[in-house]
């Protein structure tokens, strides 16, 4: 009988050397993300968001990347959710992207701040109407007695105004400004390629190879 300890596979898709990396980690990230999107990978833009509140207990969940530029990574959710509360207590987080088909992952640590109310409102109303009603009806991460009770809230909002819903005041976006990146490429025999980007005192990104 095969046990969990016996479960393994080899990583042989590709290799990664320092001279292959762009000197700008945002550009390197864009290249890997575009590669995943062009390959039509399912959930190419999803990421694990790890946070910790004042108690120091780590927490993680999958969220969707909704905006990415030369300075930050953005997503949206309820400020009253568990992750929203943790970010308010400890405005730091880690993002993890993993593309299984390319045997690649990117880990990004940084500082977190809220996006503007205008940005949140614009994105909220760009979503499908059903998603807007769901977000307005749900007190994310808070207990509820039943699925029916949640559906009743949605139905009431639709009954009140089937064509529009207001963005909840406690719903919005976050921006993570990176302080470190790590690019990981799986290799055979677990001798993986790992490179970090860290900022030096002059604000320049320094690339360092890590042992696997």
Automatic annotation (TrEMBL):
It comes from the Bacteria. Binds 1 FMN per subunit. GO terms for molecular function: FMN binding; pyridoxamine phosphate oxidase activity. Its cofactor is FMN. The keyword Calcium does not apply. PROSITE patterns: PYRIDOX_OXIDASE. Residues 171-212 form the Pyridoxine 5'-phosphate oxidase dimerisation C-terminal domain. Residues 1-20 are annotated as: Disordered. It catalyses: pyridoxamine 5'-phosphate + O2 + H2O = pyridoxal 5'-phosphate + H2O2 + NH4(+); pyridoxine 5'-phosphate + O2 = pyridoxal 5'-phosphate + H2O2. Residues 1-16 have a biased composition (Basic and acidic residues). Pathway: Cofactor metabolism; pyridoxal 5'-phosphate salvage; pyridoxal 5'-phosphate from pyridoxamine 5'-phosphate: step 1/1; Cofactor metabolism; pyridoxal 5'-phosphate salvage; pyridoxal 5'-phosphate from pyridoxine 5'-phosphate: step 1/1. InterPro entries: Pyridox_Oxase, Pyridox_Oxase_CS, Pyridox_Oxase_N, Pyridoxamine_oxidase_dimer_C, Split_barrel_FMN-bd. Keywords: Flavoprotein, FMN, Oxidoreductase, Pyridoxine biosynthesis. It is an enzyme of class 1 (oxidoreductase). One of its GO terms (biological process) is pyridoxine biosynthetic process. Belongs to the pyridoxamine 5'-phosphate oxidase family. This is Pyridoxine/pyridoxamine 5'-phosphate oxidase. It comes from endosymbiont of Galathealinum brachiosum. The lineage of its organism: Bacteria, Pseudomonadati, Pseudomonadota, Gammaproteobacteria, sulfur-oxidizing symbionts.
